[in-house]
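Journal club prep, notes for RB
We'll compare a predicted complex against what the paper describes. Inputs for the S-adenosylmethionine case:
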Amino acid sequence: MKLTEMREWLDKRDIHLTKSLGQNFLHDANQLERIVASAELTQADKILEIGPGLGPLTELLLQKAGEVLAIEKDGRLVKVLAERFGLVEKEGAPALSPAGEKTETAGPPGDPAHPDNLFLVHDDALEFLKREPRDWSEWKLVANLPYSVASPILVELAAGARAPKMIVATLQLEVAQRLMAQTDDDNYGILTLLVQLDFAPRGLFKIPPGCFFPSPDVDSACVILERRAQPLLPENLRASFVKIVKRAFSQRRKMMLKLLKQDWPKEKLEAAFAELKISPQERAEKLSLEQFIKITYLLTTSS
Ligand code: SAM
């Protein structure tokens, strides 16, 4: 989707973009191709796209994947998407759906004018995800996320066995660096650990501001995260892990053991730190994901 086409749609419907919704549309063909290539799509893939906007990424996803479920908050853009992709409301269906039924004669697969594999929900994605917890484990998230809600959306989606198998998400560079961070980086913290518990970071690439319309004030990057083959923690210990991580980073410069004393008995903490050979003076940013997992085990088992 070229920049001229984006402007035409916006002019035609007299749409003035809303900054608070993070409406910076990606029009650079190379970057869009790179995002789609990173998701390694096949016709067997089901894609969740959050914030399709005018659909520049959506149209490429429709060509490569079996099914795309897109969630857009802005009703004006939902109308554009419905017109662009021929979607209609169907009785009893929770999403706008292809006008025709999926048939052998319904045009070439992925024909952008007549896709039979796009479903569009008009909703706030974060509220939708919280309200309708689903099993996303057979899905991939591929999205140019609204930056203001990117972190809560990722934390909501990434937790547990029902998380998507892959995340390819464009977001603010600063947040991307937190997702990719390793122990002792300045960017290493709560978001890193909550997401890396379930996802292995595969890498990121930067996307210059000029690739978007209008250009955002911040730098952007696309991150690639892959769900771990095996969970690193059983489900029943997850809440304790989250509590420990949040408390440990509640004051970055303070000793972690002192902070954790607000929630856990001193003797148990000292025994756990001694067993793991972690200095009682250590700060949270020096501990690896594996050490946080071990601390969770030691603090939550009785005796
Ligand atoms: N994917 C399009 C692209 O690459 O050009 C648009 C990306 S733009 C950064 C973010 C999109 O998310 C906008 O269309 C915006 O309206 C939508 N959006 C903002 N907040 C949202 C929310 N809470 N739930 C769903 N969509 C949201």
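Talking point for the session: Residues 103-110 have pLDDT under 50 and may be disordered.
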